[in-house]
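We were asked to recover a plausible sequence for a given structure. The inputs and outputs are reproduced exactly as logged, with field labels preserved.

PROBLEM: sequence recovery
POSITIONS: 156
GIVEN STRUCTURE:
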């Protein structure tokens, strides 16, 4: 598999990577190892972190009725651990938001919704990629992102 030099990591990849009992955990670890081995620069958006943290919080309490679940602040140490693990990784892992004009980035989100029938979150992920001129994404949403011309979609 030819991996690009720069690649965006979708939230679902982060979830699989950080949840040991996730069905795709081993596959995500292997792919991440290959990305690092080939010195790919990987990009994680703040939105991707938000999605991953919240999903991991939900999964950790999936067997507890919603009204009896712990408040998110009791999950603070787990969120902090995930961030610390990311920060320990090589320098070629970047946490990003819009690098260029924020207003243009948000306008691009709207265009992505109109052009690709994306939900707002996926439209934001694509807009972050467009902002940084990234041509590849690691995601389980292959069907969605395959709609985007000239975008390499890598599943795991």
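RECOVERED SEQUENCE:
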């Amino acid at each position: 598999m030819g991996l690009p030099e720069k690649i965006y990591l979708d939230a679902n990849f982060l979830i699989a990577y950080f949840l040991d009992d996730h069905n795709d955990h081993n596959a995500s670890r292997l792919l991440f190892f290959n990305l690092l081995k080939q010195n790919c620069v990987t990009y994680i958006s703040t939105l991707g972190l938000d999605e991953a943290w919240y999903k991991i919080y939900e999964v950790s309490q999936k067997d507890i009725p919603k009204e009896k679940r712990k408040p998110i602040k009791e999950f603070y140490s787990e969120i902090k651990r995930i961030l610390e693990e990311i920060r320990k990784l090589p320098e070629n892992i970047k946490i990003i938001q819009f690098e260029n004009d924020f207003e243009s980035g948000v306008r691009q989100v709207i265009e992505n919704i109109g052009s690709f029938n994306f939900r707002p979150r996926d439209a934001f992920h694509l807009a972050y990629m467009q902002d940084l001129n990234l041509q590849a994404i690691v995601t389980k949403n292959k069907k969605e992102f395959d709609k985007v011309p000239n975008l390499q979609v890598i599943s795991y």
